[in-house]
Structure formats: C-alpha cells, structure tokens
Specification:
3-stranded parallel sheet, 14 helices, 5-stranded mixed sheet, alpha/beta, about 40% helix, single chain
C-alpha cells in the first residue's frame, strides 16, 4: 500500500514538473500587443528625468526606459512603444479601461490602490519620499516652519493626503492650494501664490531644474514626510502580462548586480562562464518560454536600455541634470533597497 502511494506521488511530481517546463500561454494583453505591434504605455505629461518629451517629440526618462525595455523584451524592438501622456486623475482610468497596457508614470504603490482599483503593482523602480521646496529668500529651513503657510499641491495624488496628514500630526494648520494639473501647481508656486510646493522629492528636483528661472533660488527642505515606492502598474486579470512586466524589471536589476551592461551584453553571451549570467542571457536556459517570450527576451531589454543602474545614472543620477544620489535606490549589496528576485 505504502509503495503504491509513493508511486502515485512520483507520477504526480513528474506531471507537475513537465507542466512547469512547458511554454506559458501569452495572455490576452500580450496577444493584443503582438497584433498591433506596439506596447501602449501610460506616462507623465512632463516630468524631466522620469517621463518627458523634447521639442521634437522624443520621449526620455527612467519611466520611459522601463517602457522601452518591456517593448524590447516582448517585441524585440524598444521603439515599438506608443506613449500616452496622462495626468494624475486620468492615469488609473486609462489603465482600467484598456486604453494603455502598462502605467509607467511615477505612481506610488499603496494598499488602497492595490486593493480597490483592479490593478496590480509590479516592481518598485524608484524609492522616493514626499518633500517640500521653498524659495531661498523665505529663509525657511525646515518643514516644521510651514505653520499656517500656503502649500501648492496637485490633486488626485498621494501627495495631497500626505500633506493633510502631516499638517494634522504636527499641528501646523498648513493651507493647501490644490490644482488638478501639475503645470498649474508648479506655476502657482513659482509666481508666489504659495510659500512652498510639495510632491515627491525626485519631482521637486525635476521641477526645480526644468521650470525655475534660476534653480539656485529654490531649496528642497531636508525632511521627507512619507514613503513613496514608485513603479509600473498593470490591470488585474492577466497574470501572464503581470509576470512579463515584473520579470523584465527584475532582469534589469539582476543584470546590474551581475555586471551585464548595454556595452558588454553581446560579448558575455559567448564569453561568460557565470551560470547566472548565461541564464539571464538565454544561453544556458530558455526562461523566455515560461513567459511566452523569445529566448533572448532579456538580452534584447538590456541592449535597449542598459541595466537598471545605467537607466538610473542616465536619467536621474548624480551626473544627470537632476543630480539625484543613488541612495536607497542602490543595489541591496551596496546599502540600498533594490533587490531582484532571481531570474531562474
């Protein structure tokens, strides 16, 4: 009897093992992407360093590179992306309705959004926190000095609620001046309607660099009043597409960890003896078939954008126009929070 049970268990295990090795069904979102030949990506209307178009209509930024990497992984071409600029109020409806395939637009992961909007948070691509910017001439050195002051803020964001919570918790009676559009909030601050402007610290750096007549006239205060884990979101109901977006980002993170770059990705395919590297690049194993993608899905993504570290440095890092430190967005083994699930 015992022997029979063991044999049955062995058969079940063998069947499960076979099923696990089979190629994944592509899923309806990927089917639609392949049919139209484009990934439709919801992005910011204009946030330098993260998602903005130049005068010729060319998009760039950290969130844009995520879109390009996804297109390269799924279609083999990072240029096969349609960018749909969305403000804070439009972004979730556009994703829910199917207007876009993925939202890559400096969006915070929260319980309310995760549990009530019919969306999946994928992977954090930038750990941020909400801050304040004030004119240097105001002589304000701390957010605690904003008691009774006016603060410009965009509606429909976690920023608005965080400001209210912070004001109540610290008895500051801050007076929010709320605007639907980002540009309106920025303009109100720079024309003196508010003593301070609040959003994610990375957004403050972007606004100061892009909009201020003289960036040196404005200072970002040292306090961060919230946690803002930012990253792409997808619709619920298509687990295959959720997995593709998630593992493309993990692949970019793990590529940095193992020294795979845009410049050396091709040479490593033939020269590397590291089993992790050869697996990521599809040399020793075909992880792509498990996602419904080609064997070189991750190679294509890295060739398109570089690894996560290259994306960060190019768009927002210390040598970019924004000049943001790597800080908590460094790899886990370098003191940061970026920790990729293993691509295996």
């Amino acid at each position: 009897m015992q022997s029979s049970k063991l044999k049955n268990l062995a058969v079940v295990a063998a069947v499960l093992g076979t099923l696990a090795a089979l190629p994944a069904h592509a899923g309806k979102t990927l089917d639609g992407i392949k049919a139209r030949g484009q990934v439709v990506c919801g992005v910011n209307t204009g946030l330098a360093g993260f998602g903005a178009a130049d005068s010729s209509g060319k998009w760039s930024g950290l969130d844009i590179d995520v879109c390009r990497a996804i297109a390269a992984a799924t279609l083999g071409d990072p240029e096969k992306v349609k960018y749909v600029p969305l403000n804070a109020q439009q972004r979730f409806t556009a994703l829910q309705s199917g207007e876009i395939d993925v939202l890559s637009r400096n969006t915070t992961f929260t319980l309310t959004r995760d549990a009530s909007l019919g969306l999946h948070s994928t992977v954090v691509t930038y750990y941020d926190g909400q801050g304040f910017m004030v004119p240097v001439k105001s002589k304000i050195k701390s957010a605690k000095q904003l008691k009774g002051q006016t603060v410009c803020v965009q509606s429909g964001t976690t920023t608005e609620k965080n400001l209210t919570d912070y004001s109540k918790a610290n008895g500051l009676n801050i007076k929010p001046v709320v605007f639907e559009k980002l540009e309106a909030a920025e303009n109100a601050y720079f024309t003196g309607r508010c003593i301070a402007y609040t959003t994610d610290a990375s957004g403050l750096a972007s606004t100061r660099n892009k909009v201020a007549k003289n960036p040196a006239d404005h200072v970002i205060l040292p306090e961060l009043i919230s946690k803002e884990p930012l990253g792409p979101q997808v619709r619920r109901g298509d687990d295959e597409w959720f997995a593709i977006v998630k593992w493309t980002i993990y692949g970019l993170l793990e590529a940095e960890e193992y020294g795979i770059t845009q410049a050396n990705v091709d040479s490593l395919k033939t020269s590397s003896k590291d089993p992790v590297v050869t697996r990521i690049l599809g040399v020793s194993e075909d992880t792509g078939k498990l996602l419904g993608l080609s064997r070189d899905w991750m190679t294509n993504a890295i060739k398109a954008t570089g690894n996560y570290g290259e994306i960060f440095e190019r768009n927002v890092g210390p040598k970019s126009a924004l000049g943001l430190p790597r800080g908590v967005n460094n790899q886990w083994n370098k003191g940061g929070l970026m920790y990729a699930y293993p691509v295996r």
